[in-house]
Structures are given as C-alpha cells and as structure tokens.
What we know:
By secondary structure, the chain is α/β, with parallel strands linked by helices. It has 2 domains: 3-115 and 255-338 and 383-400, FAD/NAD(P)-binding domain (3-Layer(bba) Sandwich); 123-251, FAD/NAD(P)-binding domain, CATH 3.50.50.60. It contains 9 helices and 26 strands. A 6-stranded mixed β-sheet has the order 5-2-1-9-22-21. Strands 11-18-12-13-14 form a 5-stranded parallel β-sheet. It has a 3-stranded antiparallel β-sheet with strand order 6-7-8, with no helix packed on it. Strand 25 (352-356) and strand 26 (361-365) form a beta hairpin. Helix 1 crosses helix 9 (388-400). The longest helix is centred in the last third of the chain and has 20 residues, at 310-329. It starts with a strand and ends with a helix. 45% of the residues are buried.
Amino acid sequence: MSRNIVIIGSGFAGTMAALGASRLRHEKGVSPEELTITVVSPTPEMVIRPRLYERNPEQMVAPLSELFAATDIRYHQGSVETIDNATSTITVARGNGTSATLPYDRLVLAAGSDGFAPPIPGLAEFGFAATQLDEAVALDRHLHALAQKPASAARNTVVVGGAGFTGLEVATEMPGRLREILGEDADIRVIIVDRSEHVAPAMGADPRPFIEARLRALGIETRMNVGIAALDDKGVTLGSGERIETMTVIWSAGMRASPLTAQLPAERDNLGRLIVEPDLRVPGGSRIFATGDTAKARTDSVGNYAAMSCQHARRLGSFAGHNAAADLLGEPTLPYDQPIYVTCLDLGPDNAIFTRGWDSKVEITGAQAKAVKKEINEVWIYPPAAERTAAYENVLYARTADF
C-alpha cells in the first residue's frame, strides 16, 4: 500500500526535508510509488531570503522543478490554508479560487516565517520591509523611484527600524544603493532606530566595537534606547519626540513563525514556533514534524535553541525529512542536533564580520570575512545541483557536517 509524506514549504527547510526523505527512501530501496513525497508551496522555487537586502531582489530565487524531478519528489502548487490533525489532511488553495484536500501519512511543516509588524501608527501605510520577496521588490522599486523626486533631505534619508542582523545588513547596504540611484554626490543619510542599548544585541559585546566602527565609517547614525512611535507620508516620530523627515522607512525588527503553527494542538513560544520533541515531532501530533522557522528545537545539551536562520533551517529540514520517512519505513528516527553556531554579518560593500559560538567570538573581519559572506550568499545556501547523487550528498552533509 502506498504511503505519503507531504511537506509544506519549499524554502531552505522544506527543500532539505524533501531531499532528506527522498535520500532515505532511495537508500532503503523503496520505490517512489510505494512512498510518495510531495512538496506544497505557491511556486516551485526557493526564495533566497538572506539576500533580499541586496540589489535586484527579484533575482533572488532558485528554481526547484529539475531538482525535484531528479529525486522523484512531487510538487503541488498552492497555499496551505488548513491542517486537520484529526483527519490527517491539509487544504490547499489554488490560484484560480478553488481548493484541494491532500491526505498525508506524515506531514512536515516547513512553512517558514513572516516579518512581525507591531501596531505602530502609519507603519502599514508608509513603511517598507525586505523579509519577503514581494516586500523586497516593492522596496527596490521605491528606491529607484526616488530619483524622479526633487532633491531633499527627506528623499535622501532612510530610517531602518531594528538594529539586529537584518536591520544592520539592510542599513549598511543603503548608502551604496542610494548613491547608485541618486548620484555619487547625493547627501545620503541612513539612521538605525532600536529600543536596545546596543546594535546587534543578540551578538553580545565581542563583535560590537567592529560593528560600531563600520557604521561610523559608512556614516550611518544610530538612535538607541528609543523606538519609532509613528509614521506619516513625510517622516517618522521617535518615542523621544525627535522628528526625522524621510520618504523611506524600512522595518526589520522581528519575525514570527507561520500562522499555520496555531492550527496544531501544541505549545508554542513567543515567536509562534512549535516546541518540538528531539526528533522534531510535534507533541500531540504523532504524524507531524515541524522544522525550520516553525520549530523551536534544542541544538545541543546546554540549552541553546535553533535560530530563525537558513543555517539552522537547512540542517533542521534534513533531519525532519529523514525522520518522517524513517517513521513510515520502520527505521529509528534521529535526534536533531547542531552544536556549532556561526554568524557572518554583512557590513557594506567590502566588509563583514564572522563570529563563532553563541557568545559570538570574532574570528574574521573585513575583506576576508566579506569573501566568506559572498561564498555563503552565492553558493552555500543555494539548492544542490539537479542530479540525484549530488543532491543526496548535499543533504547528508547538511545533517552530519561539523561546521
């Protein structure tokens, strides 16, 4: 009798989950007809989200159809609306207004996350973001449209809400992008606003002097210990009362897991992530595994948890897919682990910082770190070649490598 695994999402975690399940199926000599693997997502593409702060964001997608064909993975186009744990089915909305119901024997939830926008007056109407492809494309079009407006302080000023990883990468890219659009002589002003005491608060003290020095070198201002209180069509007002005239406010402060996690009867954290068992199974849903940004999973024995990052999503996905297939094939599931944690933070056109460990000890800075960041962004995080052996080696490496 045929059994099936359904994977919601074709991002880093979803793609690696599909490959992980396909690899184990192949390894055990099970045919694709005996165990079907189906990926459900709006398009058969992986959005390279870590690069959406760069120029030409519409190019930051990687096609998956050939890879899926090479590894006998089926694809179903649409957006998942509901998960019915009781009947082991999902409802998928199609683009033509109709819907389909898909049954599953095992489900892997890899639906990712969305940017979190708090109820700040005017943010929805006048703010921009770069956490999703459509947002990044809209921001890019807005930046290019600034060239058609009369020169002014507001036109030349960008305010970035958030001094975390995303905010810093967006902000440090802005001076170069704006000068390309507005001219090298344009008086560009970029301001980061955050309620934290320091920039990159999650990274701790060790990398902070280098990051702050890079911001000063790029002429980027900071407003710390204060938030954005309101936006309008002419600028922002900070909680301190300071008024900044600007046509461009980019919100980057925070992510939340896909709202599909709320449909499962399991505990979630404050980011909406499902608190999963060691093998990434969702408690109370024995047929469901969560992975990537939808899962709060322990990375090690000392209490660290996976971050919402492609670094963790790829490995989480490879474990979740393997375990979903193993569960159906009578094989033991594997406890997820990822004890090595690194960060490579982009800091402008020719600079970056590379740190290792949860305490972010600096290992490489400057042009050398930028070369590593370029390799990560342009090679490492992309899907493997559309060839079975290469794909299976890639997913095995993601699951077993000591980074």
